[in-house]
Amino acid sequence: MRSTLPVILNRSSGSAEDREADDRLRSAFRAAGAEADLHRAENGEDVVRLARQAAAGESEVVVVGGGDGTLGSVASVLLGGEKAMGVLPLGTLNHFAKDLKIPLHVEEAARTVVEGRAVRVDLGEVNGKVFVNNSSLGLYPRIVRHREEQQQQLGRGKWPAFFWATLHALHWHAPLDVLLSVEGREVRRRTPFVFVGNNVYEMEGFDIGSRARLDAGELSVYLAPGARPLDLVFLAVRAFLRRLRGSKDFEVLRTTELRIETRGRQARVATDGEVLVLDTPLRFRSRPGALRVVVPRETEDRKSP
Question: Which of 70, 114, 126, 299 gives 20 to 30 Å between its CA and that of 193?
Answer without folding.
Answer: 70
